[in-house]
């Protein structure tokens, strides 16, 4: 009887130790797989993972946005152009028009009801001369409704996909159809 009790206690301790190790490993993987942006040289925001593609040239889901897209060199690209560039890249190149994309300034007052999030990133635009970093949310999703109650200028938000615009601050997104080509709103300025 004593041997069975010792064996059972040892087994319980072993299970606890293995469970704790597995939890730490999962947490570590979640921390390292989360896209992060960092400031380099006090001017440019880069993704810390760089550009990574699969062998067929498509981006792997969950990898950070490429540094060439996230970089905010204020000498060569203004904030509106940066937001437009990020939207177009994520929609056209990263997801090949298969999912809706919204890039929005996180400092705005808005309500976003989303279903089917495919991918989500956070990026920051370096705003001179104040050296302020403006935070943005980059969301790839199946469908949803976005109510923007803040500034609706193209420096604050942009989107692509299967949407209907209601007034100046409401967008209703339906799932993208694979055989259809989607464009941005016609009021969008060129980034060229």
TrEMBL record:
<protein>
    <submittedName>
        <fullName>Uncharacterized protein</fullName>
    </submittedName>
</protein>
<feature type="compositionally biased region" description="Basic and acidic residues">
    <location>
        <begin position="43"/>
        <end position="54"/>
    </location>
</feature>
<feature type="transmembrane region" description="Helical">
    <location>
        <begin position="6"/>
        <end position="23"/>
    </location>
</feature>
<keyword id="KW-0812">Transmembrane</keyword>
<keyword id="KW-1133">Transmembrane helix</keyword>
<feature type="region of interest" description="Disordered">
    <location>
        <begin position="43"/>
        <end position="65"/>
    </location>
</feature>
<keyword id="KW-0472">Membrane</keyword>
